[in-house]
From TrEMBL:
<dbReference type="InterPro" id="IPR020556">
    <property type="entry name" value="Amidase_CS"/>
</dbReference>
<dbReference type="Pfam" id="PF01425">
    <property type="entry name" value="Amidase"/>
</dbReference>
<protein>
    <recommendedName>
        <fullName>Amidase domain-containing protein</fullName>
    </recommendedName>
</protein>
<dbReference type="InterPro" id="IPR036928">
    <property type="entry name" value="AS_sf"/>
</dbReference>
<dbReference type="GO" id="GO:0012505">
    <property type="term" value="C:endomembrane system"/>
</dbReference>
<dbReference type="InterPro" id="IPR052739">
    <property type="entry name" value="FAAH2"/>
</dbReference>
<dbReference type="InterPro" id="IPR023631">
    <property type="entry name" value="Amidase_dom"/>
</dbReference>
<feature type="domain" description="Amidase">
    <location>
        <begin position="26"/>
        <end position="465"/>
    </location>
</feature>
Length: 488
């Protein structure tokens, strides 16, 4: 029984604990053992909480009566992206300029998971300041893919994806501002979900952290960022989402009127808009393997009674441009202040050349791009004019009976440092941040070079249960997450 823990859903583990078939200590220690055994190769967990987690597990086993309706994940281990605040622990974002930072409180989502009984076993690695689709930073180094350590785990929540991918935890809490949950989930072959905007508070993470929450622009930016979930089993996505969602009085975007829906009993009658190829000039074309898997998924959904509608949505090109305008419309929050405390770019370049870098080349590239493109950025009024038009256009396709099927990323995981060769491919995922839509990355196959192949399902705003329902169906059909062969 113990050996099976690392392949079970959080929901199933909770059932075993609630029925006294296993102890919390058995569950937590087994996952820590698995995580610790392989972490030296991956560098996924960079702040272990192992001793504290085992202590908590022993304490939980002494509790005689537990209300599992209030603590549905009692005793279930998980990890947290290091940029999400966990009281008393590092909260550096992998940034040299925050290298001494310790969180003074728990992020809302972290506290809600703890209240639900889950146990943190560690904090995970990320791209510097959660700004790049490859997991690497000056403080902690790079995180590798559990299927092949020559490849990246993706970013920015790459540590979460890697540790879930090798069975170290059944789920993890990450953030998604431009695909940062879905891209690493796709690269590592796990399920990743970005909730609808205004559903889950961003409190305890940029821009609602101790540095920027007082800024007038923080609420505007927070609307397009999201706490997100990475799970090895699709069935955990919806119940975990229920735990972390809802107003907290701090993130003023969050709507108290969201409905919590159940998993669909059938996908018959759903319209599935199939988008196979790129919609922005700077994007890489979708690889043949991923296109073939999109078609395989569409074929199976059609057999189940869904209507497949191939489409070309040219207005998504404008959504790509609009994503880049989010930060430029934050008048009192700049990339310069966020990345390097307004230090000189020239000095940062000289430090990099001399081997004493304080920021990653990816961050430097973002600073330079921001300077070059600043004159072409939209004004606040122009931003909302385009945003409202795009909302009307996408809503003409997406509703309670339709979804969009497209790539999460145009290829499978790439080798380390290759993201610089094609830096805009994250936009396959990022456009749904600015469009505020729920999106789920779903593993469906393995490529010829033994890397996970994933696809993305996007639903209408507030209809998170629809892409998650399809994810659950596809998991049964295609197998979903599998433990990488080299560690079986």
């Amino acid at each position: 029984m113990v050996s099976k823990f690392i392949q079970m859903s959080a929901t199933d583990i909770s059932r075993l604990i609630s029925s006294k078939q296993v102890s919390v200590y058995e569950v937590v220690s087994t996952h820590i053992e698995q995580a610790n055994r392989i972490n030296s190769k991956l560098n996924a967990i960079i702040v272990p909480h192992y001793e504290l987690a085992l202590k908590k597990a022993r304490e939980f086993d002494k509790i005689k009566t537990v209300d599992f309706t209030k603590r549905p994940f009692f005793g279930v281990p998980f990890t947290v992206k290091e940029s999400i605040s966990v009281q008393g622990f590092p909260n550096t974002y992998g940034s040299y300029y925050r290298r001494t930072d310790i969180a003074t409180n728990n992020a809302t989502s972290v506290q809600r998971l703890l209240n639900a009984g889950a146990i943190i076993i560690g904090q995970t690695n990320l791209s510097e300041l959660a700004l790049w689709p490859e997991c690497n930073n000056v403080l902690y180094g790079k995180t590798s893919n559990p299927h092949n350590i020559k490849y990246t785990s993706g970013g920015s929540s790459g540590g979460d994806a890697a540790i879930v991918g090798i069975g170290g935890v059944p789920f993890a809490l990450g953030t998604d501002g431009g695909g940062s949950v879905r891209i690493p989930a796709a690269h590592c072959g796990v399920f990743g979900h970005k909730p609808s905007s205004r559903f889950v508070p961003m409190s305890g993470h940029f821009p609602l952290d101790k540095y920027y929450s007082h800024c007038s622009s923080s609420q505007f930016i927070a609307r397009y960022f999201s706490m997100g979930l990475l799970c090895r089993k699709a069935e955990d996505l919806l119940p975990l989402l229920k735990v972390i969602s809802g107003p907290d009085g701090n993130d003023l975007n969050v709507n108290s009127c969201f409905e919590h829906h159940q998993i669909l009993n059938s996908i018959k009658g759903l319209k599935v808009y199939l988008l196979e190829d790129k919609f922005y000039p700077l994007l890489k074309r979708t690889s043949p393997e991923i296109i073939q898997n999109l078609r395989n998924v569409a074929f199976e959904l059609e057999k189940e009674g869904a209507e497949i509608i191939p489409c070309n949505l040219p207005f998504l090109n404008d959504a790509c441009d609009l994503w880049f305008d989010i930060m430029s419309n934050a008048k009192d929050i700049t990339l310069d202040s966020f990345i390097n405390n307004n230090h000189s770019i020239v000095i940062e370049v000289l430090r990099m050349i001399s081997g004493r870098k304080r920021i990653m080349p990816s961050s430097l590239l973002l600073l330079l791009l921001d300077k070059v493109s600043s004159k072409n950025k939209k004004s606040y009024d122009q931003f909302w004019k385009v945003k409202n038009r795009l909302t009307v256009q996408i809503n003409s396709y997406l509703n309670k009976k339709s979804v969009l099927l497209l790539p999460t990323f145009p290829t499978t995981a790439i080798k380390h440092n290759r993201s610089y060769l094609s830096p805009f491919d994250f936009l396959y995922a990022a456009i749904f941040n600015v469009l505020e839509l729920p999106a789920t990355s779903v593993p469906v196959s393995i490529s010829k070079n033994n890397l996970p192949i994933s696809i993305q399902i996007v639903g209408a705003h507030g209809c998170d249960h629809i892409p998650i329902s399809i994810a659950c169906y596809l998991e049964k059909l295609f197998g979903g997450w599998t433990l990488p062969s080299q560690i079986n």
